[in-house]
Write a sequence for this structure.
């Protein structure tokens, strides 16, 4: 397709689809709106994991095996920390650390997260536009059987083990969209929601009132790619979380979660279509290879084209 493409994304699955979009269409036509509910401070450094995963993926620097972090990373910093008795539950590779140090330094000078992200993308010659969902603080908090846990403490430190009772996006009600975000949604020719965790990666974006309203009123076709195959999540704790929240792990639940925010849902070819008004396109949604990522992106964009047609 031609025209502007906006992708709502977070985590490894979202970064995979964003990379596929940059292969399926001119990268300069792609704008990624990225979850920042995972952002936190660690050892005094401001860490923005979903933005960093996207930066590394689009620049060809992501660790191919794990999907996050940098390829050929070293760990001298963490080794030194351990020797001093410091906590090491959140790994900071040496190259990754350089990015966090510079981001923290620039924030201390008053530079916004969106401007910092733009500078990093420019330094690595990325053509796609990467926008944090907001420059304001939003924190994803999980109510669990072990009490309230911030996202990284639940996801990394506790390895998603505690049972989740509720998910909250603290600060989202007061947060404003990052500069240029609403304009990107307004001017988009296609809006794609990546197969990221709906509750932990996309939910924080949708919890910002102005973004949700912009999606509700968008003129572009809105297509989500399901993160579910055969009653299980493709990656991460999505299916575990859904069960703990009392939600069926199927595409009906994904369609219900997005409600009136989407016009179409791309699901795996082996799965049943949800009932209701949302249009459905079936394809193989697994994304292991570069060709897979492009194929899924092309399917989502072709579906958006069909939905746009009179």
């Amino acid at each position: 397709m031609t025209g502007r493409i906006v992708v709502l994304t977070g985590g490894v699955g979202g970064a995979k689809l964003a990379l596929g979009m940059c292969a399926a269409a001119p990268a300069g036509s792609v704008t990624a709106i990225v979850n920042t509910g995972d952002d936190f401070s660690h050892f005094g450094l401001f860490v923005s994991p979903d933005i960093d995963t996207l930066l590394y993926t689009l620049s060809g620097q992501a660790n191919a095996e794990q999907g996050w972090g940098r390829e050929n990373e070293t760990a001298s910093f963490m080794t030194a920390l351990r020797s001093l008795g410091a906590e090491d539950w959140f790994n900071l590779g040496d190259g990754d650390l350089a990015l966090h140090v510079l981001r923290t330094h620039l924030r201390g000078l008053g530079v916004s997260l969106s401007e910092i992200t733009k500078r990093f993308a420019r330094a690595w010659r990325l053509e796609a536009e990467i926008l944090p969902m907001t420059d304001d603080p939003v924190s994803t908090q999980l109510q669990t059987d072990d009490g309230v846990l911030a996202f990284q403490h639940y996801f990394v430190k506790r390895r998603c083990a505690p049972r989740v009772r509720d998910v909250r996006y603290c600060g989202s009600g007061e947060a404003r969209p990052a500069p240029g975000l609403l304009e990107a949604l307004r001017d988009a020719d296609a809006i794609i929601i990546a197969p990221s965790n709906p509750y932990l990666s996309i939910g924080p974006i949708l919890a910002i009132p102005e973004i949700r309203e912009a999606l509700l009123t968008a003129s572009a076709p809105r297509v989500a790619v399901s993160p579910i195959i055969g009653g299980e999540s493709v990656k991460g704790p999505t299916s575990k979380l859904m069960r703990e929240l009392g939600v069926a792990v199927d595409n009906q639940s994904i369609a219900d979660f997005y409600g009136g925010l989407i016009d179409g849902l791309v699901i795996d070819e082996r799965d049943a279509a949800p009932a209701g008004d949302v249009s459905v396109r079936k394809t193989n949604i697994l994304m292991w290879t570069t060709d897979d990522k492009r194929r899924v992106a092309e399917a989502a964009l072709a579906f958006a084209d069909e939905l746009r047609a009179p």
Notes: The chain has twelve helices and 14 strands.
